[in-house]
Specification:
mainly beta, two-stranded antiparallel sheet, two-stranded antiparallel ribbon, 6% helix, elongated
């Protein structure tokens, strides 16, 4: 599956990663769209001290 990874300040990279394993009480959703929230712009711009990369942003997914 493909994922956008914040590798550094203002440095998004799209990478392929293995599809996650799911447990008996979990579901796997195929994400069709995912937005980056304005609160995450502080991470993108490096406004927080002590950031540790990589970061996986986007907590507003939509899918099926």
């Amino acid at each position: 599956m493909r994922v956008a990874v914040l590798r550094g300040v203002r440095n998004f990279v799209v990478e392929d990663i293995p599809q996650p394993e799911i447990g008996e009480d979990e579901v796997l959703i195929r994400v069709k769209a995912c937005e980056v929230c304005t609160s995450e712009l502080y991470l993108w711009n490096g406004k927080f001290k002590g950031l540790s990369f990589p970061l996986y942003l986007g907590h507003e997914p939509s899918g099926y």
